[in-house]
Amino acid sequence: MSVQVVDLKVEYATNPLGLTTLEPRFFWKSKSSKSNKLQSAYQIQVASDRQLLLDQMVDIWDTAKVNSDESLQITYQGKQLEAEKHYYWRVRIWDEEGIVSEWSEIAYWSMGILERSQWKAKWIGRKPEAHVTKETTSLEIPPAYMRKEFVATKQVKRAMVYASALGLYELSFNGNVISPLFAPGWTDYHKRVQIQAYDVTNVIKQGAQVFSVILGNGWYAGTVGFLGDRVYGARPLFSMQAKIEYTDGTVEEIRTDETWKVTKGPLLYSDMIMGETYDATLELIGYQEAGYDDKEWEVPDTRPGYNALLTGTIEPPIIVAEQLKPISIQKTKDNTYIYDMGQNMVGWVKVAVQGAKGTKITVSHAEMLNPDGSLYLENLRKAVQQDHYILKGIGTEYYEPKFTFHGFRYVELIGYPGEADLDTIIGQVIHSDIPKTGNITTSNAMINQLFSNIDWGQRGNFLSVPTDCPQRDERMGWTGDAQIFARTATYNRDVAKFFDKFYIDMLDCQQPSGAFTDVAPDAGWIRHKMWNTRLNWHAPDNPGWGDAGVIIPWTMYLMYGDKQVLESNYDASVRWIQYLHDMSDNLIRPDYANYEDWLSIGSTTPKELIATAYFAYSTQLVAKIAEIIGKPDDAAYYNQLFVDITKAYQQKFVDEQGKIYGHTQTGYVLSLSFGLLTPEQQKQAVQYLVEDITERGNKLSTGFMGVAYVLPVLSDYAQDDLAYKLLVQEQFPSWLYSVNHGATTIWERWDGWTEHNGFQTPSMNSFNHYAYGSVGEWMYRYMAGMETDEQQSAFKHIHIKPRLDRTLAFVEASYESLYGLIRSNWKITGDQYELTVEIPANTTATVHLPIDGKLGEYELHNLGSGTATFIGKLV
Ligand code: BGC
């Protein structure tokens, strides 16, 4: 067989459960041992039962042969999909010679609950204790434990569970945890709550069964952001309905209602930002088993319904992705130890301990150590990265927290009975399930460490939403950070589902004015206890932050070919541009924005310049988007608006010598990258930019808004040489400065710690902020040269244009695109380069290589799928 169809996905996921979109999208890859393989047609079949497909009795959708080379984003167009049903599908393709493949293996998906009226379960929680008032903090509201027993009388054909919470829940069935970490994920719960679906057919047995739940405050009712707790609601609630289909055709439903039992247990409190205390002497032994005596437990507090949209889960689950062993331990005094995990990580540690009942141990976490070797906790602000465990005193006890997480490299064990060693703790690395898709290795070990730091920054912060940092009392979905890092993020890891959810978070908090906010999800307003007043959490329309509302969907189109996002986001993008337009003075945006080129070093770019540049950029993206989704009139309008903004920009900010107002690196790179200058001004701008960088000794001065554009702009304007100089710069400020000083993640600030000043101001000093890691984009797109074609996005047509440079002896890069693996490996030996390229079936590539060995000019080689090696001379 010349081609095989593999890796079938629906809505970016393998066999997803509980979808609520009526038009799910299909994806597959083709695999072939031969080169130059293309798809010329496909056929999809969907049936309500696996056997029907095998028997050729296709009852739901048969596309017949469709002449098309598309293997991504194929929208379902069959019979109306029904709630709570499973669908089975397979696909076959025809290659470029018209030879048909075998049918793929059968994949499936299931639909969730589609109508509010189908959600019959009540929302249950624990009645507030007598002392609880409006002013009670969430820490005084312990997680609830709940249970429900029932008997499955007959043989089960299928058992599905749908569950969610306002808060966080851990759901177990017959003692096995079936929910992911931190379910149901963070959304603006006033507007939208995600429902998770679980197939428990294989866990259910005939006879007595138990559902048990631990319910935490989480983002809903616990501390969230820096302004307080109980932001969305006063206390958490859980809701679940299970549908058990027996082989005799009967159905039984189990729902949360007054017949469940509730109590409190060993978790005295558990808070995302404030840590946790677990008293093992209070464990409810056996409550997850049938037959447990819950007579003393309380009747739950019930609410009939909840007035927000209940939708299928879009985001990927949060998982323990890896375990890390500490690399060193030091006993600092009796019963106290400090561990080094060797990596700034996010999650927690699992501790093994033996000791007398009632002994309390504390596990404290920090990213750095003070000069005296103690934990550096000053940068946490109000966050408390401490978990406490009270021993029950029986054998070896294992403890790990439930509804909290920490950002740390160092762990202090306090009050530890007996001798601790390297096996006493193990790090649990958690993040949203975003499998690795990109890799880069070079001949320079420091660059490799930088690359690793970028990836760890992403892993630490992609947790339900793209957060700014994982340690201090913030951990919010800052949109500016997310957009500047978005392209790097999409190369590094499969974030299709992750961003598919995040752009909805941004939509949910778009303001009536059209402004996109600077954090998402939002909570509309919050009650600020200290000032006893209502505050808007967000500030709307910060340039570069609000623009994420356009840039992230655009990135999803580029990397995943996702036109559906462009369509569903289109009205919002139009309203955003209109808002910016209305709030401008002759197309120049005012300078009220708060953040400017956030945390830039040694230069200040005028706010109105950044604001107008981003206004132009978003406008141009909306023009492109309009074109792509078939709105040529709109495209013409926004193209014209872009030209008009550009003219206003030049008039206002560019002087006769081509100097740009503020004369900063960020000013030049934004102007060049967003296409805001005349050809003459471009030349001048490049010259000023190069001069500025060189005068600073090949150093940067950019903050969050400029950083991702510096190296790409230099490369675009034939300055690869300088781009490499910045990349390998080790002196402060630079990427490698932090690497040189032991960083294992990307720091929030260039000067988070310096030899000359020590730690920066602690109120703003995270060591795990990914924004400066956006240099990863240049490494993939320029250094390795793997770029998609805007017209044939998602790497259907690939440009391979590596920036060969003697700074590095070799670069090996790969990216697992939705079509399959792309590889670009180059090495330089003497004056000879060798480039090996691999591209997947059903794609083509144009390889750009130096003409006559001269860098900066390129000749093209066309490549069909497969591998090719190019050897040439460098001048
Ligand atoms: C966050 C940032 C964010 C910024 C806005 C900070 O507190 O940590 O990453 O973008 O506020 O300026």
Automatic annotation (TrEMBL):
Domain (Bacterial alpha-L-rhamnosidase N-terminal) ranges: 154-321
Superkingdom classification of source: Bacteria
Domain spans labelled Alpha-L-rhamnosidase concanavalin-like: 330-431
Top-level enzyme category: hydrolase
Reaction it catalyzes: Hydrolysis of terminal non-reducing alpha-L-rhamnose residues in alpha-L-rhamnosides
Alphabetized Pfam families for the sequence: Bac_rhamnosid, Bac_rhamnosid6H, Bac_rhamnosid_C, Bac_rhamnosid_N, Ig_Rha78A_N
EC numbers on record: 3.2.1.40
The Alpha-L-rhamnosidase six-hairpin glycosidase domain, residue ranges: 436-783
InterPro entries, A to Z: 6-hairpin_glycosidase_sf (IPR008928), 6hp_glycosidase-like_sf (IPR012341), Alpha_rhamnosid (IPR016007), Bac_rhamnosid6H (IPR035396), Bac_rhamnosid_C (IPR035398), Bac_rhamnosid_N (IPR013737), Ig-like_fold (IPR013783), Rhamnosid_concanavalin (IPR008902)
Gene Ontology terms for molecular function: hydrolase activity
Residue ranges annotated for the Alpha-L-rhamnosidase C-terminal domain, each copy included: 790-854
Keyword list, A-Z: Hydrolase
SUPFAM superfamilies membership: Six-hairpin glycosidases
Protein name, per record: alpha-L-rhamnosidase
Species this chain originates from: Paenibacillus yanchengensis
